[in-house]
Amino acid sequence: MSIVFFVLILIIATVFSNALDTKIKFLPRAIIQIMMGLALSFIPNFNHFNLNPEVFMLAIIAPLMFYDGMNTNIVKLKRTLSNTFSLAIGLAVVTIILVGYLGYALLPHIPIALAFALAAIITPTDAVAVSSVTENLDLPNEAMLSLKNESLFNDASGIVMFDLALTAFHTGHFSPVLSIFNYLYVFFGGLIVGWIVGWLFVRLQLLLIETDIDNPNIIVPINFIKPFAIYLLAEMFDTSGILAVVAAGLIQSTQAQSLRLTSTKTQMVSKTTYEIFTNLMNGFVFILLGVSFPTVIYDITNEGRQVSSLGYLILVGIILYIVMIIIRYLWVTLKLANIRIRPADKVLNHFLIAINGIHGTITLSMAFSIPIVLHGKIFPFRNDIIFIAATVIILSLLVPSIILPLMLPAKTYSYSLEDISTYRQKMIEYAIKRVHDADEDPVETQAVIATLRSQQSILQRPKRNATYKILQKCFNLEEKLLQEMVDNGEISVKQQTFYERMSLFQSFQLHQSFIQHFMYRARFYFIKLSHRFKRRIKQVDPLVVTKKFNNARDELAQVENEISPQIFAYLREHLNADNRAEIHWIEEYYRERHRRFQNNTRANEIQEELFINAFQNEYNFIQEQLGKKNISRELASLLYEQVSNDEWVYMQNDSIYA
User: Fold this and answer.
1) Phi, psi values for residue 373, rounded to 5°
2) Could you tell me the pTM of the whole model?
3) N or C: which terminus of the chain has fewer CB atoms within 10 Å of its end residue's CB?
C-alpha cells in the first residue's frame, strides 16, 4: 500500500471522526479517533503499515507547537512565567527521574536508558487533549491556564530528555554533568534560535505589509512553511527544534498588534488554514495510534513470550500513570509551583492540575519516533514502550472523562442560542435602517440590504410554488410598467418586445428542471457556434456584430434601470412573516439580474460605501448594547466575530464588485 493512499485514508478517517464528535458528547474526541483507528486496522494490509518515525517531529509536532505558541496570551504567560517553568522544567525533570527509576524496577529486563526514555515519553502533557475532555465542564481559569502554559514547554523537556536517553542507549555512556550542560544548551539554544528566526520572519511579513504585497497567496505559504524551516534550522545547530518553533510562535503572538495591519482576508485565510491543519494533525496522530495498536499487540505476543506479559505491561502503565498523578499533586501542594488560587479552592484546583496531566500527541509522537531498526537489528523493546505509552494515554483520557463530570458543574454561558439569534436580528435591522437613511440609489440600496439580510441565516427554505406565484406577479408588474412606458413614449415597441422576450426566457428557465435547463443550454451553445460559423463564411465583421449587441444591451439596461426600483418597492410592500424566505430569494434574483445589466464603477462605489457604513453600524450597535448592559461581554465578543467574518466575506470578495 502506498504511503499516499495510507495518509489519504487517515485524513478521511480524521474528518469522519470529527463529524462523529459533534454527535457523541460523552466521549473525548481523542477516544473516538482511537476507536476509528482500531476500526481501520481491520482493513487488509492496513494494520501492518509503518510510517517513517522521523516524519512525526517535523511534519506534525513542529506546526502544532508553533500554533500553540502563536495563540498563547503573552501577558498571562509573563504573569505566570515562574510557575510555568516550575511545572514545565522542574516537575517534568523530577517526574522523568522518579518514573524512570520506577519503570526500571518494574521492568528490570530492559536497559535503564530505555526506562528513562519511556519516562520522558509519558511525561509531557497535551493542552488540546485537556480541552477535548473538559470542553463542556466549568474548569477554573487558573487551573486551565497553568495546564496550557505547562504543556507549551514541558513537551520540549520531555523531548530533550528523550533524546539524551536514546543517545545514552546508543553509546552506552552517560555523564550527569555533561547531560546537564547539554540539556541547558539544547533547551535555551532552541529558544534563542526560535526567537531570532521568528523575529526575522515577522520583519519579513511587516515589510510585505508596508509594500502592499501581503495577499494570501504570499503570506499564507510563508506562515505555513515557517515552523518547518525554524525546526530544521534549530536541529542543524543541535538545539531543540520544538522549543524553537514555540519561541517563534510566541514572537508571532507578541507582534499580533502590528501584524493586524495586514488585510482582513489574509488574516482570516491564515487563521482558518492553521486551525484546520492543526485539528487534522491532532486527529491524524490518535487515529494512527488506533491503527497501530493491534500491530503492537501482535508483535509483543509473538516475541516468544506468554500472553500474560501483555497484562503485565498494562499493569505497569497503570502504576506509572497513578505515580505521575501523585507526583503532580504533591508538587503543587508543596507550593513548588505557587498558583494564585483562593484558599477555599486550593484542594480542588491541585487535584484538577494533577488529574488533568493528560497525555496526547507529543507522547504518542515520541513513542513512534523510536527507531524501528538499530545497527541492522529490530530496536529492542520498542513495542513494549509504545504499548505502555498508549496505555498511559488512554488512561489519562478516560479517567478525567469519568471523574471530572462528577466533580465539576457543566459549563454555563452568559447567553443562550435565542439571545444570539435575537440580537443578531436586531443588529442587522439596525444596520439596514441606517442604509435606508443614507438615501442613496434605491437599486444599489436594495442590493446591499438583500446581502445584509442574508446574514440573518434564515433556516426556513423558500417554498417553490409560493416563490413562483410571487415571481409571476412581479413579471405581470413588469409587463404593466413596460406598457405604461410605451404609452408615455419613453420606449419603443421594439424595446418593449425585446425586454418581454428576455423576461419570458428567464421565467421559462426558472420553471425548468435541471435536465431541461442543461439541454436548453446545450442547444443555445450549439446555435451560438452555428451563427459564428455562418459569420465566418459570409465574412461578417465581428466588430459590427459586437457593436449591435452592445447597443441592444444598453437599451435593455436603460429599461431595466427604470423597472427594478419599482419591483423592489413592490416586494418590500408585500413582505410579511409568512413569505419572508420567498421574498428574500426573489430580491436576490432581481438584484443579480440588475447587477448583470447595470454593473459599473459608480454602482460598485455606492455599494462598497454602503457596506462599509453598514458593518460599522453593526459594530456601533454591539457597543451600544454592551454599554447599556443589555448583552454580556461574551455575547458581544461572539457578535463582533460574526460581523468581522461577514465583513471579510462581503468586502474582501472582489467578485462582488467585478
Assistant:
1) -125, 140
2) 0.64
3) C
